[in-house]
Specification:
Strands 1-8-9 form a 3-stranded mixed sheet, covered by helices on one side. It has a two-stranded antiparallel sheet with strand order 2-7. Strands 3-4 form a two-stranded antiparallel sheet. The chain has 3 domains: 45 residues; 87 residues, 2-Layer Sandwich (GMP Synthetase, Chain A, domain 3), CATH 3.30.300.30; 33 residues, no CATH class. It has 4 helices and 9 strands. The chain is α+β, with helices and mostly antiparallel strands and 181 residues long. The longest helix is centred in the first third of the chain and has 34 residues. The radius of gyration is 32 Å and the shape is elongated. Strand 8, helix 4 and strand 9 form a beta-alpha-beta unit. The N and C termini lie far apart (89 Å).
């Protein structure tokens, strides 16, 4: 008996048709849940590759470095005569970049040289930390300063020049405004 004949026999009896339809719907729901469960497992196993074992605190380091610069500038600028209650915002063109160290294995077979690169790790128990060769600091694109007492052009100019000197950016990329209140 082929499948088409089986389907025709099932649909002839109206009582069995409703039961079979309910059974089919339940079967499809169970099948969809099973497929979803299987694919979620595959995604989890793919995400835990060897590179995922690297502990990466670069985002927290970037944020803390950026916040540190803003805080330091705010503290120093508030020490200028006539300036108080300073808020500083620094914008960056990119995040800091970590350059990893690599282990290179070179081998020669039949006169052909091959080299294989892999990330160098420091292992601490079950944790793997990538060896960082160097860190490229983010490039400052502009700075905004809002401070009480920055109403005079001369004081604004001093603040902008001080920031340009510390950060190494041109003075025209620094904007200084007086704070309300």
């Amino acid at each position: 008996m082929n499948y088409l004949e089986t389907l025709k026999n099932i649909t002839k009896d109206k009582n069995k048709r409703v039961e079979n339809l309910i059974f089919l719907v339940v079967l499809l729901v169970v099948l969809l849940i099973a497929i979803n469960f299987i694919f979620k497992k595959d995604e989890k196993s793919n995400n835990t590759s060897s590179n995922e074992n690297i502990i990466d605190n670069s985002n927290t380091k970037n944020t803390s470095t950026q916040t540190d610069l803003e805080n330091k500038l705010g503290t120093v600028l508030s020490q200028i005569a006539g300036v108080s209650d300073v808020s500083v915002v620094v914008t960056y063109s990119q995040d800091s970049k970590q350059n990893l160290a690599y282990n290179t294995k070179e081998s020669e077979k039949n006169g052909e040289k091959t080299s294989e690169k892999s990330v160098a790790y420091n292992e601490d128990g079950s944790k793997k930390n990538a060896v960082i060769e160097s860190i490229e600091m983010p490039k400052v694109e502009g700075i905004l300063v809002v401070a009480k007492g920055a109403s005079s052009v001369d004081l604004r100019s001093k603040i902008a020049t001080a920031i340009a000197t510390v950060t190494g950016i041109p003075v025209y990329k620094v904007q200084v405004f007086e704070k309300q209140g």
